[in-house]
Structures are given as C-alpha cells and as structure tokens.
What does this fold into?
Amino acid sequence: MSEPRIAADAVIELERQYRFQWEAAQQSHVLLYPEGMIKLSGSAGEIMKCIDGKTTAAGIVEKLEQAFPGNDLRQDVMDFLEVAHGRGWIRAKQAG
Amino acid sequence: MDEAGFVPNKPAERKISNPLWLNAEITFRCPLHCIYCYNPVDYARSGPELSTEDWLRVLREARELGAVQLGISGGEPLLRDDVEVMVAEAHRLGYYTNLLTSGVGLTEKRIAAFKEGGLDQIQLSFQDSTRELNDFLSSTRTFELKEKVAKLIKQYEYPMVLNVVLHRLNIDHIQAILDMAEAMGVEHLELANTQYYAWALINRDQLLPSREQLVRAEAITNQFRTRMGNKCKVYFVVPDYYATRPKACMNGWGSVFLNIAADGLALPCHEARMLPALTFPNVRDHDVRWIWHESPGFNAYRGDDWMQEPCRSCPEKTKDFGGCRCQAYMLTGDATNTDPVCDLSPKHHLITDVTAKAQTTGQPVTVHPIVFRDDKNSRKLSEKSQPETTPVG
It folds into this structure.
C-alpha cells in the first residue's frame, strides 16, 4: 500500500458513513457502516474514542498517553491510523 | 451481507448467536409493480399491518437482543406516515438505519425529518437507466421522479446508494446504467442480479439472462470498478443459477438475520413464509427474544442435524449451510434437500435445464406473458397457493 503518511498535525475525523459506538451485545466497540459492522479490538476502540473531528493525530497520541501513562504509544497509534485511513474509516485533514 | 462485516456462525455449534440485522418490511403496499419483486406472491391476503406501537416494541426488543443494522423496507415503506417516528426511535436505540425506497413519496419535508431523526442511509432503487424500461419494468411512470429524489439525497448529504436489479431485459444496458450511476455521483452501487423467488420465479423465463449476457456485464462492470476506485464501491451479485455452489443463504438459518413482515410474521429470511412444513410466530403474539431463541420455526434449520446427503457428509457444509432452504423447497419440493444450485445435488439438473433454455438469443420462449406484481395478480395467485401456504402464526 502506498497510502500517504498521516501528518502529526492532521485533524482526524470519522468518514461520514461510519458510526462508532459501544455494542453491549458484542462487548466491544464497533464501526457501523452500510450493511455491515466491524468489531474493534480493545486498543483500536480506545484510539477511535479519541477521534472527534477536532483532535490532531499528535493530540490523539497525547490523550492516550495521558490515559495510559508510562507507555510510548506513538508508533502503535500512528500505525492504526494509517490502517484505518487505508480502509476508508477515517479522513485526515491537513492543517493550514 | 458484506464479508468484512458479520462473522458467520459455525453451524455445528448449537449455541444461538445474536441477530445482527433486523429487516422491517413495514408494508406490502407499493406504487410499483416490479416483475421480480421478492414480496410473497400472495401478499394480497396477508393480515393487517402492524401498528406504530407494535413496530416500536419490535425495534426495542430486537435491539436488546443485539440487532444493530435496521433496514426499513417494504413494499414501499414511504406509503406509511410513521416512518419518521420509527427512524427517530431506531436512532435513539443505536441502530444503523437504512431506508430502502423506490423514491416514490420521498419529499423534501420527509427527507429533512429523516435527517433530523438520525436516519443513516437511503438506498434508492432504479429499474433501468432509461425511462422507457424503468417505467415498463415497474409498470409506472417514476423515472423522472427518481432522478429528483437522487438530487435530494445528495442535497441532504446522504451517501448515494443505488440499487439496480439486473436481468435479461436490462442487463445489456449495463454501460448506460454505470454511466447514469456516475452522473448521479453514486458512492455505493449494488448491481443485484435477480434471484428467482416469488414474482421473479413466476417470470423466470423472461428474466434469466444468458451466460454470455452475464459475462459481458460483469466485464464492463469490472472496468468501471477499476476506473472509479474508491470513489464508488460496486457490488455485482451474480445470479446463483450460474454458480456451482449455493450461496450461504442469510449466513445460515436463524444466524444473523431477522425479518419482520408487514403483518407481523417473524421470518429467518424474506421468503420463508412459503415453507409449508413450518409455522412462524407473529410479533403480535410473542416477544422477539422467544421468537429468536425458542420458536420452532427459527430453530428448524439451525445446526446441521436436519441436513440430508450430499450435504450431511460434505466438508463444505460449514461454508454454505447447504444453500437456501426456500430454493430447495421451491425446486425440489423438500426444504431439507441440498439447494439444487449445488452441482453435487442429485437434482442439479433442475437448474441446468432452466439455464440451458436461457442461452438462446433474443426473447426466450415463454409459457405465459410477464406477470406484474399488483393486487389483482396477487389475489389470483393467493387462490392458487391457498392449500399449500402456512397459516399466520
């Protein structure tokens, strides 16, 4: 995949047709889209929770490092965002 | 359902999974008269429609069980004036809600209310790219209206989802259909070849394309898909008559899909009411939890104890669950038989005899003229099917 790298200062938002929510019946966070559902892992769910259409990629890393202190999460979070972007779940708006 | 979506059950396990998809066929009334409609041919004698309160209760009960995708369909769902109420409640409950409509009745006032209420998606159906064939196939004059509705859907910032049912009479227009989709800014395009149930089974001789037609249409669609890339997701559903293995119908019986019909009948698929050996429950008499977990109808073909050979000993039974029970019943007379689409079925000739006839060019030789889906024809067909249809539970 030659997806463009997501810049640290890019604002991350969910693609329009996806909805992110907690599903009690699945005991997991899910992404809902037309005619389907993606079950997210625990860590993917935590990252998606931080996506609000206002926070930058760097801001998401920061939020998570505050929530889970003592961990260097930058690489994991950025890797996940790349994958999510590649699959069309999220949009990255470049600053400026 | 999308393969990236729901994980199918392992049929060998008796543990019952949650329903994930609720399809609410809120009315059988329809201004269109499509010759391939999957509504029951005897819909005209189905009981009265569920009330708004009944539907809101069904939404709540199914959501409690884990259903998360909601389809509001019909008939034409917009013929009911309480869709707005259902949409708002569905959104509150956390459903991802999809309205499946011909577009007839979708005014700006209504679409604004749907947006406000939290409707997630509108799937618009077109019968063909030309006014003449669209109007002929649906036996109405709706083409221009649908074009207007497509603009409204865009204006209200919904993803543009278009469904076109393909068959012998329109499949050669595939390039024009794709051009139309592109011009409309379609983001999801579902090109669904007709499946031969209900009205489409009656009109099968007229609707089944030749293999050559199908191959050509798929090749043209693939070029379009490559050119459009991520701009438009294209689903091309092949008719199972040209397959050698059956479809994993509904991801397995009573596995993820729950259909509630206009009259309240709860079914594991759109078509199951035709199966004479089974009685299905009505949501007027039972709650959804009992229906899903306990009712004999929903348990009838769970697991694989019911299977006959060649399915019973087939390693592929965990993949396709023996295909479609309704198709097995319609074509072989016994719903526990292998779906005859499978070339391992001893009755596979029931399919190949039909496809062989469809290879001629031009109009096929038919035994009767096209039967449009309307009340008059439905009443006529109800009389015919009376002795072999299941009473409403």
Q: What stands out?
A: Residues 25 and 39 of chain A are 11 Å apart (CA to CA).
